Amino acid sequence: MIPESNELRFETSTLCNYDCIICPREQLTRKKETMSFDLFKLLFDKINNETDQYNTLTFPGMGEPLLDKSLNQKIEYAKKKNFTVLMLTNASLLTLDKFKEFESLGLDSIRVSFYGNSPESYKKVHNITDEGLFKKIRDTLTDICKAKKTTQILLTYNVVENSNDALTDSWIQYWQDKADLLEVWRPHNWAVGKSYRPVQETQLKTCGRPFKTPLQVQVDGTINMCCFDFDGKLLLGDLKTQTLDEIFRSEPFNKILLHHTSGDFKNSGLICENCDQRNADKSDVMIYNSKFNIEERVQKVSTTYSDIT
Q1: What is the per-residue pLDDT across 50-63, written as a single tens digit (0 to 9) for each?
Q2: Would you give the DSSP letter of residue 203?
Q3: Is this prediction's pTM over 0.90?
Q4: CA–CA separation, 109 vs 84, rounded Å?
Q5: Which of 79, 111, 175, 270 could form a disulfide with 106 if both were Cys (CB 3.0 to 4.6 A apart)?
Q6: Got the DSSP string for 89-133?
């Protein structure tokens, strides 16, 4: 049973030039590398030869996509296959000229993690040393918002107490008439990587991901269950040597599916047991959304906005 979704997610790199305090990169044991274009093409074609259910490709993951020198090739290849293509980035390496390149390739949207509204708050949350990056990136994004024609700019702000929380309203005010979408969240826990959200006593039987998740292709070609599983603890198989059918008939997937069907995770050994994504009350997850009803939005994935539960 391949989970119901129209979205492929390719982690094009596990390299990153940031060390954000809400990200568990210090716990990452997977190899820091970039997926070659040849491997991307091999896996992308293999997936689409096996099933026609996918029409959207996202470049997310535990790294910064703009560090990938073959990113343009990957975008161009997917667009020639009539895919919608989305990208997540910290925008530190984005320029107006680079944006125009992406737009000419047909990139549909760029989602930027921009967690500050002053040099100090930005430096603190993104855990960087260069205070000048805040102004550089804000100026670049402002210019891009003025120049964009077809590629949408989506901005995300994660509110971290005593770091950038006092500037949330001013951040919204600055970007509300510039970007195509603004979303303000409270940080999640990356399953077991961080502890920003309390794990509630009342939990859902399932977060929905074994049934409706996008296909998560890690940088080395392995498949894991969930985008919150940053270190591949819910590894399902290896697409380089297995078919999708084999991966989603495998023992690892069937074990996950069993527990998400029963809702009993005790002694399962799965990171799902204490994951905040199964919290029944999601009223504290999102603070602001410029387009979507918040109660509905938190029930959807953050890329295609399809339902997850």
Answers
A1: 999 999 999 998 99
A2: B
A3: yes
A4: 9
A5: 79
A6: E--TT--HHHHHHHHHHT--EEEEE---SSHHHHHHHHT-S-THH
